[in-house]
From TrEMBL:
<dbReference type="InterPro" id="IPR011335">
    <property type="entry name" value="Restrct_endonuc-II-like"/>
</dbReference>
<keyword id="KW-0255">Endonuclease</keyword>
<dbReference type="InterPro" id="IPR004603">
    <property type="entry name" value="DNA_mismatch_endonuc_vsr"/>
</dbReference>
<dbReference type="GO" id="GO:0004519">
    <property type="term" value="F:endonuclease activity"/>
</dbReference>
<dbReference type="GO" id="GO:0006298">
    <property type="term" value="P:mismatch repair"/>
</dbReference>
<keyword id="KW-0234">DNA repair</keyword>
<feature type="region of interest" description="Disordered">
    <location>
        <begin position="1"/>
        <end position="25"/>
    </location>
</feature>
<protein>
    <submittedName>
        <fullName>T/G mismatch-specific endonuclease</fullName>
    </submittedName>
</protein>
<dbReference type="Pfam" id="PF03852">
    <property type="entry name" value="Vsr"/>
</dbReference>
<keyword id="KW-0540">Nuclease</keyword>
<keyword id="KW-0378">Hydrolase</keyword>
<dbReference type="GO" id="GO:0016787">
    <property type="term" value="F:hydrolase activity"/>
</dbReference>
<keyword id="KW-0227">DNA damage</keyword>
<comment type="similarity">
    <text>Belongs to the Vsr family.</text>
</comment>
Amino acid sequence: MAANELPVPSSAGVSNRMSRQRRRDTEPEVIIRKLLHAWGLRFRVTLPVPGMKRRSIDIAFPRAKVAVFVDGCFWHVCPEHQTSPAANSEWWATKLAKNQARDVATTEHLRELGWTVVRIWEHEDPQAAAEKVRDVVRGGP
């Protein structure tokens, strides 16, 4: 199989489930945004990463130069919840490693531009995550 070729889905159910996965406006992301907004913080959603095509910041505070990413445990290989699909395992291992490398490159790029990057796992408590973001935006820890 060529590097850019998608694997054959292991079943119709898996294919259907994967096609429904949200890229944005996930439940954890929406909850965090609602909390931040309730606290009077204003932000941009899905802001393009300056100088990087096809990459965007989940929750951006351009004036404060704070970029927030709410990373899914599967797609970004959470150290607590990572899984390795049995079907097409080699393809998935390569795909997920590329996701991780892209995350590192994006974080480094934004930091070089003077941004503070906050990465939140989807399993984190939304209240605690929103408080962390609020503190960073307001110049705290």
